[in-house]
Design a protein that fits this description.
The protein has helices spanning 14-23, 37-45, 69-78, 92-102, 114-124, 126-131, 143-154, 206-213, 216-239, 256-269, 285-291, and strands at residues 2-8, 27-30, 53-57, 84-89, 134-137, 164-171, 182-185, 243-250, 275-280. The protein is built from eleven helices and nine strands. Residues 1-155 form the RapZ-like N-terminal domain.
């Protein structure tokens, strides 16, 4: 029997995650009164129970009863009931934007004060994040990327280390990404912009990739960069970090940065216990600027 408690910040994707888990064969219940949690789990554990995997949604809508969830979890621990906690999170500015887009009021925010509601909620459910088995930061996740992460954990049973990595290429002339945790400048590499036949192509094209990477500097940089990542990522996890944005920049964000971002993304994909996505922020901007 696999029993998953799905919780987290309002607006971070809990309802979407529950629907996805249901599609994956989980029996899902949302917003069950907290005092009934142990009884629900006990029913699932009965020898003749036909349900082999279940997910229970718990969030701030449970009101004051949410404060008693620690006691209920302790009760389940004492009963030998095994459970996992999936905590969905997102940055405050992302949550505010999502609320404004849907024109919903935060359950703790009163009239119009979404930011205050988010702050109150974050404080009230901090203990759940501390006990979480898995933490997914959905700030930059597309719906399909959330589904892939859930499948990795709850269908394929792969190890997951609570770190979701966004690899982003960008152009320095358009500004450094404000949310980048690490920034690497690859403007020292050969620039395809000045090569006939390559200028209009991008780092997604094989010809550009070969031009950028076919030299000792590029190969040495990749080796050192990947070694640095192998050292940093486990230590970020120990520190409690669950979202990492790596920016790789060149002048225009079209050739060199895209090439190196793709190399890093492919390398990270082989690390099956991390979630990873790629974004080429400025790859089309040169064309847009010229069109105007």
């Amino acid at each position: 029997m696999r029993f998953v408690i799905v919780t987290g910040m309002s607006g971070a994707g809990k309802s979407t995650a529950l629907k996805m888990l249901e599609d994956m064969g989980y029996f899902c219940v949302d917003n069950l009164p907290v005092p009934l949690m142990p009884k629900f789990a006990e029913m699932l554990m009965l020898p003749d129970a036909e349900i082999s995997q279940a997910a229970l949604g718990v969030d701030i809508r449970n009101g004051q009863a949410l404060d008693g969830i620690e006691e209920q979890l302790s009760h389940m621990d004492a009963q030998g009931i095994r459970y996992e906690i999936l905590f969905l999170d997102a940055r405050d500015n992302v949550l505010v934007k999502r609320y404004k887009e849907t024109r919903r009021q935060h359950p703790l925010g009163g009239i119009g004060r979404v930011d205050i509601g988010i702050a109150k909620e974050r404080e009230r459910i901090a203990f759940l994040k501390m006990q979480a088995t898995y933490i997914l930061d959905t700030s930059k996740m597309l719906t399909r990327e959330l589904k892939q992460a859930l499948e990795k954990i709850f269908v394929e049973g792969k190890e997951f280390k609570n770190l979701y990595i966004s690899v982003m290429s960008f152009g320095f002339k358009y500004g450094i990404p404000q949310d980048a945790d690490l920034v690497f400048d690859v403007r020292f590499l050969p620039n395809p912009y000045y090569i006939e036949g390559l200028k209009e192509k991008t780092g997604n094209d094989r010809e550009v990739q070969e031009y950028v990477m076919d030299n000792d500097r590029a190969q040495a940089f990749v080796e050192k960069l990947m070694g640095l990542m192998d050292f940093l990522l486990p230590n970020y996890i120990l520190e409690g970090k669950n979202q990492l944005v790596i920016g790789i920049g060149c002048t225009g964000g079209k050739h060199r940065s895209v090439t190196l971002a793709n190399v890093m993304y492919q390398y990270m994909q082989k690390k099956e216990h991390y979630g990873v996505r790629i974004e080429h922020r400025d790859i089309e901007k040169d064309a847009i600027v010229k069109a105007h």
